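Lab notebook, bench 4. Still working through the backlog of constructs that have no structural model yet. Next entry is a single chain of 558 residues. Request: give me the structure tokens for it.
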Amino acid sequence: MPLSPKSSGPSVNMIVSPSRRLRIYGAIAILALVATYIHARQRWNESPFEYARDYYESVTNYFGGPVFNNTLYSEGNAHLVNQYYNSSNPCANFPDTDGIQLVMKTGATEVFDRIPTHLLTTLKCLPDFLIFSDMEQQVGPYHIYDALAEFEESAKAHNSDFDLYRDQKECPVSQKSCVDAKRDGQKAWNLDKYKFLPMMEQTWRMRPGRDWYIFAEADTYLFWANIIHWLKKESRLSSREKLYLGSRSFIGGTPFAHGGSGYILSGTLLKHLIEYHPGMVKQYNVKGAHECCGDLMLAQALEEYENVKIRQIWPMINGEKPSTLPYGPGHWCEPIFSMHHMNAEEISSVWQFEQTRKTDRTLLIKDLYEGLIKPKMQVSRQNWDNLSDDVCYLNPDPEAQQRADGHLRERKKNEDEMNEVEKDAWKSAEHCAKVCESQDVPDEDEWDLHGIITRKEDEPGTANDTERAEDTSPSDAAAREEWKKSLNEKKKNRSCFQYRWHEEICCTAKSFKLGAPKAAPEDNNPNAKWVSGWHLKGINDWIDAMGECKKPAWKSPD
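Model written out:
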């Protein structure tokens, strides 16, 4: 049988017709679609938020950490804060607190309401801090020390102020449950005053030798960058001196640093107070039964034993919070160190504001207004108290005046000093609003300079305009500059920024504050409602006249 010749091309059996090739490709495509469907269905069943999660991961990978929408961001503060909140490294810009000790005071009835937010914000950037209460407790890995643990039994035994202290130890459930059942918050206040001096003694024993000791309450927020910069650089104070710094208050003529605002002791002063006067704490433990307040007793002890009085650094150390700060003269270019009466949400918001600012320059009081308050300002609010009470206008009827609160009667303006607008201010919220409006300074194009009224842009020109232009001289320009300065001074000296009307009482304020809501009246009495208003033109005129703060207005202790 003859051999067939060897072929160098493809075998006839390997040749596939075009129609068969299309069938093979179609089968492969169908298998690919089925596989894709099975894979996609499995992912769809994982979570309805899968897309959001993938988007979040893509964004965080891009920015290098957890990134969220900045909930403080708005059109009104876009120039101050970033639109996104990168929380990957919250302590990156936290100052060096070497040599500085924070001591926070709280109470067993409020520990779990107040302390966790601090632990999630500023305290997580501090290498060390002490928390004292009126009961030993634990919050996660953080220990709360009992400031009264060494208090003499004889001094506690027959003192009703310690009823809460004893009740807390006997409470078999959470402290909040026991307190809510009894509804007696005054007992916590009565007990609080005994913590101050024992806390000083324990602080020195546990953390001796620090340069500065900063004491704060659980509802106090501290601006660490400002405090550290001032203590270490700006103040030129020495911790080797005996110094007691804070916001000065008075009780019975005795000056003391308000505890809620926070206060600062130099290490030298604390050392002398504790080491050189061993019987001092026991003496004041007994004295506490006859005094109102622990911060007052601390001031008394410092003066009695060390001849040291408080040195004022208000308004940097402050007892207000963003919604109650009296923005305006004296509260604008000043740096802020502390705020008081801060709830957990407010503490978190201010921390977030610090974290998302577009600059690391010194934080001023004006920054709090522009970043947190200004976006919320409006012409008026119903059922709202903006805390206006500097000058009041009351219904002249004797019975109406008698019904008014005493402190409002004390602030009423004498009738012989009132203008016609002020005499009618008590009649309604609309009349009240006119008091601030009456102080308006006309804008430049509305004024008559030397009898010449500026022509409006939409008015036709006249021959007189040409004559006026020809008569313009350097002396006219100088006069106009003087006139502008005069306008600015009038804007700066404004004494009415906002008003509040309630029960036929109109009160105005020499600063601007946001305030807080009030309950709506239960009846339909129109006089019972609370109406607050802000004269935004006057506020903005004052801000424009002030201009930019050229440098922080640091407070020197006095």
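Notes after review: The longest strand covers residues 100-105. The radius of gyration is 34 Å. Flag for follow-up if needed.
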